[in-house]
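Renewal narrative, Specific Aim 1. Our central claim is that a sequence can be written position by position from structural information alone. The example that follows is taken directly from our test logs and has not been curated for this report. It begins with the structure tokens describing the chain, in the order in which they were read.
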């Protein structure tokens, strides 16, 4: 939130006279309801549970939807990553098994808890990378890891 809204400068939000930080989404909802000027930032799944009590705001005219999250146009969306290496997966089969399990059930689990599913293309690419790491397939055509593709390898 600070990175996108305050351009990485936490001073405006941290110097707010009525700042209330909490890990408890219920506390944040109570704070938003008690003041017409309050804002809160939490997961979309929680917003959906409390949609009758909350107002979803768009950012620069872009509302949070499965489409705007998937195409990265909604600026506050953030993906969930799980990282490993072929070496770790081969040394520790339980890691490989867990990642395989996660790739097998991710779509149903994320939708059950109210998160946006990953695109089928991205899921297939992740499965292809898992197979390649396990020596059972060719690496994706880009040859890059997800971290490299997203510029997170620095």
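The sequence written for that structure reads:
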């Amino acid at each position: 939130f600070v990175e996108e809204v305050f351009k990485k400068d936490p001073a405006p939000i941290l110097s707010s006279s009525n700042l209330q930080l909490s890990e408890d989404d219920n506390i944040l909802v109570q704070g938003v309801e008690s003041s017409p000027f309050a804002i809160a930032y939490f997961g979309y799944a929680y917003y959906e549970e409390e949609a009758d009590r909350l107002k979803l705001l768009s950012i620069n005219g872009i509302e949070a939807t499965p489409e705007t999250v998937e195409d990265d146009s909604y600026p506050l969306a953030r993906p969930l990553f799980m990282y490993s290496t072929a070496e770790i997966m081969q040394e520790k089969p339980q890691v490989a098994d867990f990642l395989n399990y996660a790739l097998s059930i991710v779509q149903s689990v994320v939708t059950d808890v109210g998160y946006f599913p990953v695109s089928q293309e991205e899921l297939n690419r992740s499965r292809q990378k898992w197979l390649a790491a396990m020596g059972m397939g060719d690496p994706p055509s880009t040859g890059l890891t997800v971290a490299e593709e997203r510029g997170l390898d620095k």
